[in-house]
TrEMBL record:
Residues 385-449 form the Isoamylase 1-3-like C-terminal domain. This is Isoamylase 1-3-like C-terminal domain-containing protein. InterPro entries: GH, Glyco_hydro_b, ISOA1-3-like_C. Coiled coil: none annotated. PANTHER family: GLYCOGEN DEBRANCHING ENZYME. Pfam families: ISOA1-3_C. It comes from the Eukaryota.
Amino acid sequence: MSTAKQIWEHLKHIHSGTGNGTQIYGMCKLYFGLEKGSSSFVEYYNKLLAVCQKRNVHPVPSVSSPSPDPAPVICSNPGSLPIALRKDLDNNAKLLNFSGCGNTLNCNHPVVMELILDSLRHWVLEYHVDGFRFDLASVLCRGTDGSPLSAPPLIRAIAKDSILSRCKLISEPWDCGGLYLVGRFPNWDRWAEWNGKYRDDVRRFIKGDHGMKGSFATRFTGSADLYRVNKRKPYHSVNFVIAHDGFTLYDLVSYNNKHNNANGEGGNDGSNDNFSWNCGFEGETEDTNIKALRSRQMKNFHLALMTSQGTPMMLMGDEYAHTRYGNNNSYGHDTAINHFQWDRLESKKNDHFRFFSEVIKFRNTRDVFRRENFIGKKEVTWHEDNWENHESKFLAFTIHDENGGDIYLAFNAHDFFIRAIIPSPPQSKRWFRVVDTNLESPNDFVCEGVAGIQDSYNIAPYSSILLEAK
């Protein structure tokens, strides 16, 4: 039995609801529709799309082309299979596994390319999706023998296609074979990337790792080291701290280690490199100090994400502090650990949810966070003279706005108070405190701002502030 087949047999026992691996490209799992039958799904999906577009929501489905369904292959020409699945000809034609699912499509073979392109066009023309996020997209950059290609035909074909080139194209620029292409994914000026370095560097700085201040500043300002060198823009960096794989945001601040025994793989699945910190206790606790610290850290992560240059991405459920109880590989569970819990959302609307939604609104109404070009020296002032100090975990800076609406931000990842010296505001302006993550709701975010900011501000341990000049 192939690895892929074993995985799917295993998923039956943990109530899988992944939705991956349809047996016919261009089709969707029917349980995503309200009624059975492909035609009813099209009707339902287009109704859903109309509602989304009225609310400025644009669907971008995830594509898992590299790993086909392990079900029995129905093929009129069995001799054509070698062109579809990559095989190691030096090892008894064993299937090459760059997808983690036991098999990998030969995506740059002309026949397979045609299959993938036709499928993508079908989703655009029939379902009117706005783009695609490509799972393990580095697989799409490998040749017939699995070696990396500098100019993959499939990636180029998608970028140049008269239909697909108008879509949002987002790559997850790595695969299970170690081909890590963050900042180097072939793009033809069209492809954006999940920025895995943003995730790791921001996690490490906020949790208080030494020596991460410079890296945090680089990621915050759009990762010019990764994207300016190949003539891309800040928005080509899809910034994220949390994704569907790995810990939720709550679990990131509640667990030092993964807890994956429920997955039936002896705890051997899932990443061990989570850059998480449990704030002093592993898992659930009633300790009010630890709970308050976790709340601050979640707000710190969200503030950093929503004020960074680039395209922010967050995980559904983090707005109400969803937990999977330390499981960082829960894809196979069709249970409450993966379901959106509306009741918890309602109960959080006065604190955690409020902060998250208000910070998002603030970003959307401030052009200073959504620059088309990378920040230059005249557009940011770093209030910092300790760049070389490996022990320093404090960073403060002012982002300048041409209309005078400057933004001052400070992040304190130390375990002690920092007295920050506040710079003078622009002429005829005053500083107003909008965010202090150390304060409880509703004072942690005040949209109109709180006046009376003096020339210094005491910033609590593991907290951050945002001031706006008005």
